[in-house]
Design goal:
- The complex is a heterodimer of chains A (324) and B (280).
- Chain A is built from 9 helices and 15 strands.
- In chain A, the strands form 3 sheets. Chain A has a 6-stranded mixed β-sheet with strand order 3-2-1-4-6-5, with helices on both faces. A 6-stranded mixed β-sheet of chain A has the order 9-8-7-14-15-13. In chain A, strands 10-11-12 form a 3-stranded antiparallel β-sheet.
- With 280 residues, chain B is an alpha+beta fold.
- In chain B, strands 1, 2, 3, 4, 5, 6, 7 and 10 form an 8-stranded mixed β-sheet that branches. In chain B, strands 11-9-8-17-18 form a 5-stranded antiparallel β-sheet, with helices on both faces.
Chain lengths: 324, 280
């Protein structure tokens, strides 16, 4: 059902720009009859273009992207007075502005945009993480309505610098208000204190690259029945210890995030939280967003989704330039 | 080059050329082509071999290589009492016109020309293009108006004309129109460096907000385009020829815009669009 509809999976960053996580592949054999002439054009199909992540600054950019994704209609069909509607699917995994439903495309055609939310498997159980290699810099966002302790872990990862320097969240967490006064209390140059604080958080999360040597602050994680707490202390001081309750995590998942932050080809990751409904969620895996989307059978069956990174299973095998 | 359309004669001798290009001959022979001679007389159609059978090899040869125009002399001498016809494809006729003018002149003057295989023919030159349907049978050329081909040829030559204020169009405007025509008519895909501006219904070069734009004009027609550059504009007509298959239009536009030297040859396409030959 619905097979062959061009599909694009997007997320909105804190600035309101859309990031393309995955998209259908353009088929070179869409027009039967002649060999694909696009292949002769030297500018097309460059590997860099193919894999480059795409950031769309406006709705018009999204329409432009969709028009490039879909095959153009035959000009002769336009002459026949054919309506020429084309269904495209935009799957929005984070919250963002509503998209226009019908937009004009070349040769008098109309794109009918069907917008849908995140897949049920992710809804409320995952964070989206864009590394510093993503266009526009690092950021993260919750997918659907996630529990507060999951948001709290996201804020902790951000503060520890795992998403890259200067990462921003598309949701407000009270982490800053909570950590700010404590840091001011530590004093001794707020920049140094912030750096030591990030190192201590990394130490608590068991992140080796971030916790470089013993700093003036120490961090550790305390696991409980319904979640975890990160505690930061100052050795030799009896002052207040910083405490931050959040969801629990598996150490290998944190390692996965560290690896992902330098991956230019796959800058978007889903941080997946498992555990039965009603039980406290646990961060178990960080997986490439493109790969995860491409591997979902339900997406392919329901939306006619042709994954852009699985050439062995994709029905269309001639990906071409999609990115700018 | 149209010959007098004679009614199909009951009796005639016909020189049929194989469907391949002839070759330039040597030592006084203008051209060499694979051909057979067929005599139709008293309701029977028979093969005739110039110079007899000769060798076994010659007897077995389905399409012997024959010298031109010598074969015409032989046939005229042998069958002086019969009207003679020459059957060949449109691209072969164009080849003779270009490479064997003496033979071509005798084809036209002394024989009824019969075209094998119907085709569409597109001729381009420095003055413009001519597009025609050429049915099989006695040679006939049905010219058809093709504003799309005129436009593509003008773009290939870099002579799109001037904007309404008299300003000449630059190379970037030509490149935009060229990319758009190729995308719309040939590839069916927009290239990455051409963007679609949905609010203006226009195609433009990506990253060049002030550059030329190709705007759709639905009020003038479903395929009407207007090239806009600054305050000035130029209406473009990309109407395809009538009664011509889309596959043929596609091949013709690709040939006009993508071949190396954009003047002075002919394209012949069969109605399926699968088989295209040039006169080169």
């Amino acid at each position: 059902m619905n097979s062959g509809r061009p599909t694009v999976v997007v997320a909105t960053d804190p600035d309101g720009a859309l990031h393309v996580l995955a998209s259908s592949v353009r088929s070179g054999a869409a027009r039967a009859g002649l060999a694909d002439l696009d292949a002769r054009r030297p500018s097309s199909g460059a590997l860099g273009d193919l894999f480059a992540p795409t950031r769309l600054r406006s709705e018009e950019d999204l329409v432009d992207f969709l028009v490039h994704l879909a095959p153009l209609r035959a000009p002769h069909a336009a002459l026949c007075g054919d309506e020429g509607e084309l269904d495209v699917v935009v799957r929005h995994v984070t919250r963002g502005a509503a998209l226009p439903s019908v937009v004009p495309a070349p040769l008098g055609r109309r794109l009918v945009v069907h917008t849908s939310g995140p897949p049920a498997e992710l809804d409320g159980r995952a964070l989206l993480f864009a590394s510093e290699r993503a266009p526009g810099g690092p950021w993260w966002a919750p997918i659907g309505d996630v529990p507060f302790d999951v948001l709290a872990l996201g804020a902790l990862l951000e503060a520890a610098g795992l998403f890259g320097r200067g990462a921003r969240a598309s949701v407000a967490t009270p982490f800053e208000e909570h950590a700010g006064p404590w840091l001011a209390d530590v004093g001794a140059g707020l920049d140094d204190a912030a750096r030591a604080f990030a190192a201590a958080l990394g130490e608590a999360l068991l992140v080796e690259p971030v916790a470089t040597g013993p700093g003036p602050l120490r961090g550790r994680a305390v696991e409980g029945d319904d979640g975890a707490r990160v505690v930061v202390t100052r050795p030799g001081h009896d002052g207040p210890a910083f405490e931050w309750p959040c969801a629990r995590w598996f150490a290998p998942a944190i390692v996965d995030i560290g690896v992902a932050s330098s991956d230019a080809l796959a800058p978007y990751r889903f941080l997946l939280f498992d555990g039965p409904r009603g039980h406290p969620p646990v961060l178990t895996r960080a997986v490439g967003a493109r790969r995860w989307i491409a591997s979902r059978d339900d997406l392919r069956a329901v939306e006619g989704f042709a994954p852009s990174t699985a050439p062995s299973t994709a029905p269309n095998t001639a990906p071409e330039e999609l990115a700018r | 080059m149209s010959a007098a359309a004679a009614p199909p004669a009951e009796e005639f001798v016909e020189i049929v050329l194989a469907r391949e290009h002839a070759q330039v001959g040597s030592a006084g022979v203008e051209a060499v082509a694979r051909a057979r001679v067929v005599v139709q007389r008293a309701g029977r159609r028979e093969r005739w071999r110039s110079g007899g059978v000769g060798t076994l090899e010659r007897a077995l040869e389905a399409w012997p290589r024959e010298p031109f125009p010598d074969l015409l002399d032989t046939v005229e001498r042998t069958f002086a009492d019969l009207p003679s016809r020459v059957a060949l494809t449109a691209d072969q006729l164009a080849w003779f016109a270009r490479h064997a003018p003496a033979t071509f002149r005798r084809f036209v003057d002394d024989h009824v020309l019969v075209q094998r295989d119907a085709c569409y023919a597109l001729v381009r030159g420095s003055a413009g293009v001519r597009f025609a349907w050429r049915p099989a049978g006695p040679v006939r050329v049905d010219a058809r108006a093709a504003p799309l081909f005129e436009l593509a040829h003008a773009v290939a030559l870099g002579r799109l004309g001037t904007l309404d204020g008299g300003a000449a169009l630059d190379a970037e405007a030509h490149a935009l129109v060229r990319d758009a025509l190729l995308a719309l008519w040939v590839h069916g895909r927009l290239p990455a460096d051409v963007e679609w501006l949905a609010s203006a219904r226009a195609l433009g070069r990506r990253g060049a907000r002030d550059g030329a734009r190709l705007v759709e004009d639905p009020e003038r027609g479903p395929l009407a385009l207007r090239l806009e550059s600054g305050e000035r504009s130029l209406d473009l007509d990309q109407t395809p020829p009538a009664d011509t298959p889309a596959a043929v239009v596609r091949v013709a536009v690709a040939w006009l815009l993508e071949s190396d030297a954009p003047t002075g040859d002919e394209l012949f396409v069969d109605p399926s669009g699968q088989h295209a030959r040039t006169s080169a």
